[in-house]
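Sequence in, structure out.
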Amino acid sequence: MAAAPAGAHASDDERAELLRLFGDWHHPVPEILAAADPDRLPRTTAPVRKAARTGALTLVSARPAVALRDTLVRTASRLGPGFVLRGFDGIADRRPPTAPDSARVS
């Protein structure tokens, strides 16, 4: 995640911006970004919004907001890791579609 003003967009396209920001990260991050289809937008909208909300929680800096966030995270963690991880359903457990058997290379 990278912080940007609300409504801001990359000057050329979002994939190019991601490659500028994360293209020198470890394997396979640059390869995944380079292979991304800029038109996979409908499938990725919900996970991106969820990631943005999660990321926004890490950026709070006002003492009351930080205390509230930390208390909520601590409480949720005590309810069990499954409770916290359910918030990532559809993201962390996603598996890419596989090619039909006839298209696979052996």
